[in-house]
Amino acid sequence: MKRELNWAGNVHYEASSIHYxxxxxxxxxxxxxxxxxxxxxxxxxxxxxxxxxGVLVSLRDVPHRVQINPEDRTATVSAGMTYGEVAxxxxxxxxxxxxxxxxxxxxxxxxxxxxxxxxxxxxxxxSASIRxxxxxxxxxxxxxxxxxxxxxxxxxxxxxxxxxxxxxxxxLEIEPSYLIAQQVYLELPFDQFFREGDDILxxxxxxxxxxxxxxxxxxxxxxxxxxxxxxxIEWPEWWFGARRxxxxxxxxxxxxxAAATPQRGEPGPWHERLSHFRLSHVPSHGQELQSEYLIDxxxxxxxxxxxxxxxxDISSVLLVSEVRAVARDAIWMSPAYExxxxxFHFTWRPEPELVAPVLSKIEQRLRDFDARPHWGxxxxxxxxxxxxxxxxxxxxxxxxxxxxPSGVFSNQFLDDLEADAT
Length: 422
Prior knowledge:
Blueprint: E1 17-20, H1 24-33, E2 37-40, E3 55-58, E4 66-69, E5 74-78, H2 83-92, E6 95-96, H3 108-113, E7 130-136, E8 142-145, H4 151-158, E9 166-173, E10 175-176, E11 179-189, H5 190-201, E12 206-211, E13 217-227, E14 238-239, E15 242-244, E16 268-269, E17 289-296, H6 300-308, H7 311-315, E18 318-326, E19 341-348, H8 352-366, E20 372-373, H9 383-389, H10 393-403, H11 412-421
Parallel strand pairs: 1-3, 2-3
Antiparallel strand pairs: 4-5, 5-9, 6-10, 7-8, 7-9, 11-13, 11-15, 11-16, 12-13, 12-18, 14-15, 17-19, 17-20, 18-19
Helix pairs in contact: 5-6, 9-11
């Protein structure tokens, strides 16, 4: 088989074949007939997490469904759907998700498997909205997980890194539709963030601060406010020393704003504002690498100060960096497990040999703040360091062994973690 690549082209899948299932029964048969199987989502993972020498199975061609239960305020959705597709169907019927990631193009199951998140001091990762899961287990049996049926297995599978079976549908918490108004501010001084970072991060429903590490400012701050009023919000011209932007912009300096969601304070449907990028556009197609590290939010200013000491190294290979807040959760493999977090995200030029030494310098500084790398991004943490960074990793591995003792859903990535966890 021709070796397939991930979205960015930096991971070559070693699978003997990729199966594009067209039904739930076909997924079950694939699992039952192969010794090693991994799920393949939108391929938007920059790490080797999805890799396997067995077979990969994609659920993108399994019939889509969004089944709304208005009494319970939940929606059961097909795992292979993207968040943008789910959001569009929910909004059509007057419902909404609490939060979304920067990209609406990622699959629901894939994003939840890695505890992917959006931004907001009160907004947890996307996995936290899961209320039930339908999972194909070893041997092809179909099981249903809820907190009441098996709390530890449910918690392990919420962000299961692909090692807790093939998730085929998820039941998500929903709420009535709402509007979002988005306004960008320019040139927020770092000194202002050092003094009032908590207030800045909590100043709107979702806040993202972008920097190129070339100046003493955040180039852009994207503020997203919830509203029920269709009238434009009056955003002040100046805010924390930053000035209001009067045109639509893209987070990456010099890139076209056509791919970005509408700005300039005009309220619109939640699903057309919460993400940074439009579902109808691909913001870039593999011309980047990504890293992300989450630390306790109380250390946000100190961590940024430390990173600025190596700003020349960072800026030499950086496209853009983003700082976001993520609310704490109780999901074992979430980078925000049991602590309100701030995330330092880096979008790099596609030059891995130049990025690697910069990552080492970043991680050396962020380890002072007990950083946890995002599972789907590139990093330089050893397996032993990951074990130390994630306090419930051993619990996760124990539950994974009980669920899948023969390692049907394992791969080298998880096996390495297993060796260091024990």
